[in-house]
Amino acid sequence: MMIDLTHTLTTSAEAPMSIWPGHPTLEMKKVAAIPEQNANVTLISLGSHTGTHIDAPNHFIADGLTVDKYDLTKLVGRALVIDVRGKKEREIITWEDMQKWEGEMHEGVIVLICTGWSQYWGKENYEDHPFMDLDAAKKLMETGVRVIGCDTLSPDSICSPECQVHREILGAGGMIAENLRGIEQVLTLKDPIVSLLPLKLDSCDGSPIRAIAWSAGDILG
């Protein structure tokens, strides 16, 4: 079984998308259409951090790696779900909340922070998500983990202009996938594998992704 961890990119008013304040919104425009033309073609415009996406180190680190330079083998790997769905609006996720999974954290493991907040995607309170503190980010990096994902706008508080968690993880050469959906479904998989591959965008600080997860024993295709 394959699980889609990706929000739909849409301009529909009936399915509004959440977006970081000030970032570009999604635009989709038909530039060719059947039957007037012999094919359908759509012009797509969006920010590098729109929808379900991944942050490269260069997002906050001036000389950090961009998405086209990052080692793709680090973005497909064993998923470890940190289940903190009991957290409330703007509640801090501490290392104490994550510590019981420490024995499973090591280089190559992709940590997915499950707050359950993806249920509020497109709603006003999506911005009020729980968030990690700096100590948790530091200790997570000490385990050797370099790639994390979250079902929120950010692992930082939206009220924190310093974005210290971003700077800690990206500064360690890590990557951060944001706006994942349905991480809790990964808990149903045996030996889950997750893929967070970006587009090959030249010298870009981030990229939309199609995030998926499956059991290691499954044969894709």
Automatic annotation (TrEMBL):
Question: Could you state a single Gene Ontology molecular function term?
Answer: arylformamidase activity
Q: Which Gene3D superfamilies match?
A: Putative cyclase (3.50.30.50)
Q: Which GO terms describe its biological process?
A: L-tryptophan catabolic process to kynurenine
Which positions carry the signal peptide feature in this UniProt record? none
Could you tell me which InterPro entries the record lists for this protein? KFase/CYL, KFase_sf
Family, as annotated: Belongs to the Cyclase 1 superfamily.
Please state what the protein is called.
Answer: Cyclase
The species this protein was found in = Suillus discolor
